[in-house]
Design a protein that fits this description.
Distance between the termini: 57 Å
Structural class: mainly alpha
Shape: elongated
Helix content: over 70%
C-alpha cells in the first residue's frame, strides 16, 4: 500500500539504524531487520528518480547506488559484509516491491509479477517435476512436460530486462533449444 514518501534523509537515518540493529542480533533473529531494510530500500527507490523523473524501482541509478553505499558506510558496514547483507535482503526487497507496487507498475518496469515466495514455490515444483522426468519412470512424455513447464515459467519481460551480456547468453540458449526441438520434431516425422 503506497503512502506519502518519507524525506530521503529520514529514510537514510532509519536505514542506518536498521542496519546497526541487524548487526547486533544473532543470525536467527535477523529476519525482521531484513524486512525493515527491504522496506526502506523500496522507499529510497521511490524517492530517487531516474533520468526520466520516474522512481528508480529497479535500483539501477548511480544516485540510488550511492545512497545505499552511504547508508552502509554510515552504519559502519563495508565491502564483503555489505554485500552479504544486501544479498540477504534481496529476497525481502522483492517481496516488499510486490507488496508496494501495483501490477501495472511492476509490468512497466519489467519486474516479474510473481513474488519471490511464488517463484520459490514454482522453482521447487519444477525441480521435483524435472527430477521425476529425468528418472527412468518419467518417460519421454513427462520429460517434455517438465521442459514445457520450465519454459512456461519464463517471463519474456524478465529476459528483456537482463543486462546485454545475459541477453546474448539467453538468445544462444534459446537458439540451441530451437534446434533441439526441430530435431525432435524431425525424429517424430521420420518415425510416423
Amino acid at each position: 500500500m503506497k503512502t506519502k514518501p518519507l524525506p530521503l534523509k529520514v529514510t537514510h537515518d532509519r536505514m542506518v539504524k536498521a542496519l546497526r540493529e541487524y548487526l547486533r542480533k544473532d543470525e536467527a533473529d535477523r529476519t525482521p531487520d531484513l524486512r525493515m531494510i527491504a522496506a526502506l530500500t523500496v522507499l529510497a527507490r521511490e524517492a530517487i528518480p531516474q533520468a526520466d523523473g520516474e522512481p528508480d524501482w529497479r535500483g539501477r541509478t548511480h544516485a540510488y547506488r550511492e545512497w545505499i553505499s552511504e547508508a552502509y558506510r554510515d552504519a559502519g558496514i563495508y565491502g564483503e559484509d555489505a554485500r552479504k547483507i544486501q544479498s540477504a535482503a534481496r529476497y525481502h526487497v522483492g517481496v516488499a516491491l510486490r507488496d508496494y507496487l501495483d501490477a501495472d507498475t511492476l509490468a512497466d518496469y519489467g519486474l516479474a509479477q510473481a513474488s519471490p515466495v511464488d517463484r520459490a514455490r514454482t522453482h521447487r515444483r519444477v525441480r521435483a517435476q524435472t527430477a521425476h522426468a529425468l528418472s527412468d519412470a518419467g518417460g519421454p512424455g513427462l520429460k517434455l512436460g517438465a521442459a514445457l513447464s520450465i519454459l512456461t515459467d519464463l517471463d519474456p519481460a524478465a529476459l528483456a530486462a537482463l543486462p546485454p551480456e545475459d541477453q546474448a547468453t539467453a538468445r544462444g540458449a534459446l537458439a540451441d533449444l530451437e534446434r533441439r526441438v526441430a530435431a525432435l520434431i524431425g525424429g517424430l516425422s521420420d518415425a510416423g
